[in-house]
Amino acid sequence: MDLKSNTIEIVERIGYTSDKLIEILIEAQLLNEEHYITEEQLKIISKELKISFSKVYGIASFYSMLSTKKKGKYVIQICNSGPCYINKAKNVVEAFEKNLGIRIGEVTTDGLFSMEYISCFGACQIAPAVKINEKIYGNLDENKVKQLVETLKKEAI
Amino acid sequence: MDKIIVTVDGQKVSVESNTTILEAARKTNVNIPTLCYHPDQNIKGSCRICIVEVEGQNSFSAACCTPIREGMKIKTNTMKVREARKMIMKLILANHNSECISCKRNGNCELQTLCEELNIEENDLDKFTNLLPIDQSNPSIVRDQSKCIKCGRCIEACDEIQGVGAIYTVNRGHEMRIAPAYEKNLCDVQCVYCGQCINVCPVGAIYEKDNIEEVWRALEDSNKHVVVQIAPAVRVALGEAFGMKPGSIVTGKIVSFLRKIGFDSVFDTNFTADLTIIEEGNELLHRIQNNGKLPMLTSCSPGWIRYIEFFYPELLGHLSTCKSPQQMFGALIKSYHAQKTDINPSDIIVVSIMPCTAKKTEAKREEMQDNGYQDVDIVITTRELAKMIKESRIRIEELDEEGFDDPFGISTGAGAVFGATGGVMEAALRTVYEVVTGNELEKIDFENLRGISGFKEANVPVGELNINVAVTNGLKNAKILLDLIKEGKADYHFIEIMCCPGGCIGGGGQPIPSTNEIKEKRIEAIYKVDLLSELRKSHLNPVVKTLYEEFLQQPLGEKSHQLLHTHYTDRSKE
Amino acid sequence: MKSFVSKLCGKIKPLSLKEYRDNGGFSGFEKALIHMSPEEIVSLIKDSNLKGRGGASFPTGLKWQLVAAEIATEKYVICNADEGEPGTFKDKVLLEGCPMQIIEGMLVAAYAVGASKGYIYIRGEYPKSIDMFKKATNILKTEGYLGEHILGQDFNFDIEVRSGAGAYVCGEETALIESIEGNTGRARFKPPYPPNYGLWGRPTLVNNVETLANIPLILSVGADEFKKYGTAASSGTKLISASGNIVNKGVFEVEFGVSLRDIIYDICGGIENENELKFIQIGGSSGACLPEKLLDLKLDFDEFNKHAIGLGSGAILAVDKTCCILDFVKMNTEFFIHESCGKCTSCREGNRHILKAVERITNGYGTDRDIEIIKNIAKIMKESSLCGLGQAAPTAILTTLEYFYDEYKEHVEGYCSTGVCELKGEAIKHG
Questions:
Q1: Closest Cα partner for C337 from B89, A83, B171?
Q2: pLDDT number for residue B162
Q3: pLDDT for C55-75, tens place per residue?
Q4: Which of B79, B155, C297, C302 is the most buried if burial means most Cβ atoms within 10 Å?
Q5: Alpha carbon distance C159, B170 (integer Å)
Q6: Could you give the ipTM of this predicted complex?
Q7: What pLDDT, in 10s, does the model give residues C275-322?
Q8: Under 8 Å CB-to-CB from A3, ≥6 apart: which residues?
Q9: Same domain (yes/no): B422, B308
Q10: In this protein, which residues make up the domain named 2Fe-2S ferredoxin-type (chain B) (predicted)?
Q11: Binding site for [2Fe-2S] cluster, residues of A?
Q12: Residue C232 belongs to a domain
């Protein structure tokens, strides 16, 4: 099935009422490897739910877990809230930047990795922590980041 | 309703229990400043400029959205309140492009007025003005984000009143902006160009595309024959821009001004409104008699046309094929009038003065032309006319009243009422009744079709036939009727749909403010124009009769089809 | 440490109804449904002196009474599981450790206030919790604890699990309601409050996870027994999420009345790397930064109120002496810049002015005027923002200005005693 029919299928399954919009957007995003919702998808959802396109976009751009822009295949989300900051999240950011050759907010040229800040996701026990495609990695330091990037690169091939 | 006693700045006042602090204060003649508040809209409580102190509370209360409680002691004018309001205003200004002198709303800006009232001096905060490119992508509306103060009024107008939803908030926090999806230009989204957003904008963040210079240039060109038409709703609103009471009728002064600045002919759109009634009335009868598509929908409001083209293309067959009065006027000037005056149509410039921003785009529609001559060349709004008057330094207040030029200055009261919601229907019924029955209609005032209400209907016996009609204004109301039509539940012959709440008198090009209270005064004035007219039925307009005799031959005839009728486009994929 | 509200977490299989029942699960609800009237339940909860565990510490029984008193065709119970306050992860322990206990709390609440529909709004960052709740509600539907004629009685209640999508502000109850309705999570002005006008304009009870998890236990042990835990003003226990520069990080259940010092040095094992404590931030990013000298404060709503401090969600972030206050404030402000919804002027615009001034200071270009700006804007945000987010955002600034003013001052004078800030402007100032 193509993106269009898959998106329609999500709406059919979750429901056509406007309160289901956010749930639909979350699932629609899962259809794309690049972790974002395409303009075509937003238009389909707007039409099916009878919510204006601008509002659907407005909501997709409001919530930080939803994206309207392409990201990497692996989205490295680095917590920069209090507990991780105190446990030297800055070093983790630097280590990722060094190992990937990109800065926060950028995507690697091969489209494999993108990096962004994220607010606390409750892994403060193992701070500093990052989240990569739903998976949490904690107690990070420079060496662990290096190993992690290598593992992910291998996994991608 | 129970009465509650509260104290505002030491003065006791008894108010109903569902009153807000803002309303209670107004009863004591204290005018608490507001910015996001608009009398016709939902309370937003977001700008925070209306904060007051309430005894016993540590933090401020926003007066617009805080209901009073028994015994509440409200302080609106303490040092603390004044300082806090100034600070909030400074925060707004730090993110506002304050180039007031070149702003469209200079002199009529709620933010500017408030700065003066709050005694704002130098702003020492960092400036964060958002200098995104100005959206000038379309012929009707310009958006300038650098001026936007995020009050959200335009969203309510677009999304909740009109049900169009071309704009919404994007992003969040200080990156929140009000824009179309993907922050596209208006021309790339489904915007109907009604301009209702403009009428509620407190600042100069959204305004009409200015065509004033083009008019001055045309008037300066001695090789051009420049003709102007004025829509019915303009004459009952323009005065407001010069401090006159809402509902002042300034038709004669406008005519005299336009003549003074050099227009070769000053005509009246009311004339082609009469003509529209003849064509549209006949079209209705034709559809009824020949099992045509019913209900027939009016087609004179270009914002509404864009709406149906975007959102209900499957119903386009219901639209009357009549061009709007603005376009009929242009088409006749460049054909009939050109012939009669022996002027080459290429030397004629047709200018319209409209209450409407969508008219600017309508004039530019590809199909609105004959033999390569666009029907209408330049459209300006009532607001732009006011600016031209100011620019000319002519004191409109002092001008004598003059009459329109012949022949297209002659019109009936039926043409005048086009400017108010229900007017087209009323005008049509006056004519259809008499044309069908051959009898004189005794009671020509259709009171139940008048007024600002979003939905009105009537059943009118016309000879053998009972004609069911409905009238709606504001696109969200129109949507309800369109859904009924789709479900086959709209048992009407004829439906008048006006894009803007209140009809054209509430158009997106009218003087600001344009509140419901003001709109009602404009409507009253429209019916006064009707009442004072010698003739009040379109088919009695002598020039319309001559026009058919000399040129068009018959309603819905070949010439009419060529010049006065049009077709529509499915824009749902745009 | 106590084991009360979290006593089953980690002890039973979270999705085993049998194990939950074997450990007393649903006995409270059964008692309520079969033997008590809604009024009796409300007054029991009032008697228990239970206060909201989400942050605002509003008396739970009173909230229930407000919803119960409303006459409406439909009422809602919402469990607020949008645990977004940085450094807070105590609800996750309950959500994943004993979901049925929370659902039981919702059932009792629904019966007491007259609601037939419930929502649990779980932050999107907790996919495991969401999954677990979907499974738990399905099991309970099958077993007759949710749905129609629950336990054969004339009581219907169903729960829908909703996922957040990454917005801290949705922890604010009206923003959460907006989000359930499918909108941007922007807070409504209050009043009207949710008990009168909530989800879809209907009376709505919004309670935090931990609050609801206490309900079945209060029904089981009774109000008097419950009040034996804690202090006069603060009955029961509290889950504390401890993080930062401490030896033992994690979630700990403590009895109200315990001192902050005991929490840090006894329960959490003191400061790691044998460092000294500089301050603790209590209640997450919106919480106060308290210096070491205030550690003898007891965990108690009244005592906290006396110092104009909120307990918030019960997060404690311990920070050692290597931390620069200004750099910390900068990080904290960046969080609120990212999480502000953008609706009201004070919060939307205020945060970035604060950040700009803080950055000038940490870069060595700051002046006394910048401290003044920070103070003034923090104050206006606190006093005039529309919702709790904007009102609480400047708490860290206002408290550090109070307790660590010297550190602001030293930066302005061109010096960062912790060596964290590279004061580029120093040369200009002193050269």
A1: B171
A2: 98
A3: 889 999 999 999 999 999 999
A4: B155
A5: 31
A6: 0.96
A7: 999 999 999 999 999 999 999 999 999 999 998 899 999 999 999 999
A8: A31, A32, A38, A40, A41
A9: yes
A10: 2-80
A11: 79, 84, 120, 124
A12: no
